[in-house]
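Lecture notes, part 5. Sequence design as translation. It can be helpful to think of inverse folding as translation between two languages: the language of shapes and the language of residues. The source text, in structure tokens, appears below.
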């Protein structure tokens, strides 16, 4: 039977026999590809650049007085040692991951020469991975 108000099908065996109840429309699954093509911005494109730097703590690191780790302790995505971090300023930002968890922006500072972690009542144990992710954006 069809509800004349909503034009939705009402089950025949409704125990309440009320014709005003709403029946949700079926949800159609998609393959994740947008139905509408993306909008092309004629002014240009935004191009991201990402640099990642990795370090595994080699000895327990007490953070009660903070810590500064020089850039030369880290290596990049190509497994090459680095002498400095690429910082994209002002059109970018830096994320810090400790043990695969993104850290709050206020607990660290990254300069081209080093990573500084503010004093905190914690210890980073030997074997803990530290990842710095520096993202920058340019237009074309």
């Amino acid at each position: 039977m069809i509800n004349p108000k909503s034009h939705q099908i009402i089950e025949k065996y409704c125990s309440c026999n009320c014709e005003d109840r709403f029946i949700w429309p079926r949800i159609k699954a998609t393959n994740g590809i947008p139905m509408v093509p993306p909008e092309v911005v004629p002014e240009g494109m935004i191009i991201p650049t990402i640099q990642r730097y990795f370090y595994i703590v080699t000895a327990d690191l007490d953070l009660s007085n903070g810590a500064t780790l020089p850039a030369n302790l880290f290596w990049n995505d190509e497994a090459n040692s680095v002498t400095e971090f690429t910082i994209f300023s002002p059109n970018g930002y830096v994320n810090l991951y400790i043990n695969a968890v993104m850290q709050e922006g206020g607990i660290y500072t990254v300069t081209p020469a080093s990573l500084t972690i503010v004093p905190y009542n914690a210890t980073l144990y030997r074997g803990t991975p530290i990842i710095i992710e520096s993202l920058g954006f340019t237009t074309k």
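The translated text above is only one of many valid answers, since several sequences can fold into similar shapes. Residues 46-139 form a domain with the Immunoglobulin-like fold (CATH 2.60.40).
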